[in-house]
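Quick illustration for those who missed Monday's session on complexes.
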Amino acid sequence: MNFSKLEMLAQKLIKQPSVYPRNNSCHEIIIDYLQKLNFNIELMQFDDTFNIWAYHGDKKQQQQHTLLFLGHTDVVDPGNLQSWNYPPFSGIIHDNALHGRGAVDMKGALAAMLVASDNFINTHPNYQGRLAFLITSDEEGTGINGTTKVVESLTIRNEHIDYCIVGEPSSQHQIGDVIKNGRRGSLIGKLTIYGSQGHVAYPQFSKNPIHLVIPTLSEFLNTTWDQDKNIFFPPTTMQITNIYTNNNVNNNIIPHTITLDFNFRFNNKSSIEDIKKCIKKILEYHSLTYNIDWKLSAEPYFSNPGKLTNVVVNAIKYYQKLEPCLETTGGTSDGRFIAKMGAEVIELGARNHTIHKVNEYIDLADLKLLSSIYQKIIEDLLLYRQ
Ligand SMILES: [Zn+2]
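Prediction with zinc ion bound:
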């Protein structure tokens, strides 16, 4: 069987076991590909993290635009290797599907973007505007030295991005049925409630923090965290992720403390301060002695639908004969950093049914379709039409 350039590139990337924080040769493969297309390429390294910033074409006039493709080469751990039908970094093509960790999130989409750009540049060498890539190797990890650092550098240089396509796997049942223009933020909390330790046979001489926390817990679960209905976002939610005491000795001790770990996913209408105030009010109402540590892990973002959204919707309609749903669901994405630069952002990628799971794969037909849709988006944005 003869494999296409697209399949071979996706396969080559999957064969790199670039589980965060490793990147293996992913950046070399991508740089090599972009070099052949005459991109201006900059490898931006922050500590051990490799990021690629590259652009092609130029922007001579105000009405010419920069379209950025945003992606990442790092993948999550494959987990139990015995559970995989094919080794996760073999990039095996079987039954018209490409198998391996990262096939969907998001080496398949990366290959689709690169090949779409390649086809576009070769077909329309005199297009107007700029085609750019920002590819990090720290999206699945801490994100400290990834897209955020590159955006800081680009902002200092007054780089302007008009439109950004993020290759995160947005699709559900068919390519393009769901696209995203925002994500909720993530706020982490660690709450410790203090009681007083004692013998279980003499509860009158101690204060059991487990008993104290129960009514508070049910109040947390019954609280509505949003003040107003938000038509663009799912509601702000709280999930308790862990509860533990300092008692790991035996069962005749009333513990001194109980700790709760929790995570808020909050939309753009919820303020962090309001969430914190609300938690404080509940704790004070129950007269608890407590300590709470907060950590903001991501701000929410929302990108107002404009020209890019229209172009993406039309490209999907052209190939798929369906109207995509515009959503803001799912975890956080690096799209938030590009939205901060003032760009219109749309996330469009592979079907997400196998992301971060064992036996991740992408159908070859999906891979090809994604690349065709990306190419049409580039054409519709960067070809000057009379
Ligand atoms: Zn991803």
